[in-house]
Amino acid sequence: MNYALIDELDMNLQSGFSVITGETGAGKSIILGAIGLLLGQRVNSASQRNGEKTVVEAVFDVGQYNLDKFFSDNDFDFDGCECVIRREITTAGKSRAFINDSPASLTQVKELGDKLMDIHSQHQNLLLNKENFQIDVLDIMANNSDVMLRFQTVFKHYKTTCSKLESAIETAKKAGEEEDYLRFQVNQFQGVKLRKDEQEELEQEAEMLSHAEEIKEKLFTSLQLLNSDNGADVLNNIHESMRMLHHVCDVFPKAEELAERLDSCYIELKDIATEIESQSECVEYNPNRLEIVNERLNQIYALQQKYHVNTITELLSIQSDMEGKLLLIDNSSEEIDRLRLEALNAKVEAERVASQLSKLRSEAAKKMKQEMTDRLISLGMPNVQFEIDMSEKDEMDVYGKDKVAFKFSANKNMPLQNISQVASGGEIARVMLSLKAMIAGAVQMPTIIFDEIDTGVSGGIAEKMARIMREMGDNGRQVIAITHLPQIAAMGEYHFKVYKDESEERTTTHIAELDEANRIDELAHMLSGEAITQASLDNARALRASSGGR
Question: How many structural domains compose the chain?
Fold first, then answer.
């Protein structure tokens, strides 16, 4: 394992009720920390040894807990019976997780861990002060998960629609403030009537018109050089050269190839001369057209400068955005009306499903009140009053429209108040155990660990709490209690002791399952302290006998 003070540790836990004892500081919390890694908790760097790899692995028998859907949804191998979770922390501090030897994310490990194990530690008693915890407990007892899922779906749609409505109203408000200027800008664009490729075409035409006289002169001179009337023109000379070569082809065969090459040149040059003549006729100095082209370009340049862009494509994109905003403004009232109606309908549906939730919770609250009262009376609180107060919230949230508060009074003629405000530490421990026992009857949970839930209780009450935990261990469930009380330790079907082994080099934590003789010694030690007396041994045997042990 190589985790904190643990070199290597193996625990073979059976179904039923197991207890873990040990001196303060022996390493019980270290074992819980290692188990926490298997439930997806973050790595505490202080618990890892430098230069050593940490491996924590647990094997669960989950054949009766209907987990096939989790494994199929996440594409993990599963034989229908066994599940293996492993966390590895490398020497560099990098964490890796595996489910049935397949790499898994911490989210997947946590999701699976929540289905396999519940760890109740002392700080969880503070949850009684959290409204969400109280409503979660009530929902578990109401068995309303299908209705709750449906409510959360319609509530999410309602909130999403409300957000869209608020956004549409805000957008319409801002757009309305700039509508006049926006329309002016769009009208300016539409008046210019931009075409995608016209800027390049206009710039080329302007360049040509600005140099029309020079172009026309050069074309005319080029044509004269190719085809003049003074007898020295290039085309006639080439034609005459071709004729001479053809005369000697019979007596000088290479002349034919030369004649063919000249023929190609003659055709190409003649075509060029024709094109020069045609282009020369097209080029005309037109100051009016040049003025029109320059004015159009100035319009384009002015828009580009105004909007800090360089191309017509960018201008057209800006125009499109502005026209889109105007379209939204023109249609905003219709869109707002549509969203307002959609939000109203979604709210009505959410309230309808929320009412179903409230009805189921109200029915469950009555049963839960009676069961909790019975359990607390059996735990030494004969005058206890327990109520679940349900009222309506000002606004719905993801839990519905119910405000839930657990009310409690341990004594006669004392008014009911919020449980976290009036219950003592020992009372809180008994309330939490009763809640856990009640929930365990409604939820399939393979393993439940109680970390010193016995805080603030002793004697007969501790024994009654132990009997409840033992009952929770029925039907194949594992219930594990970490305790300092001998009354609870004596009730366990299995007893493990955590102890430290100290040497000159280091201190290590170990755990061992105790046989009956060692259990008596451990209980006697818990009863009398460091020095075991005959009286404590007799008391330990009596505790074991009352628990059903040998």
Answer: 2
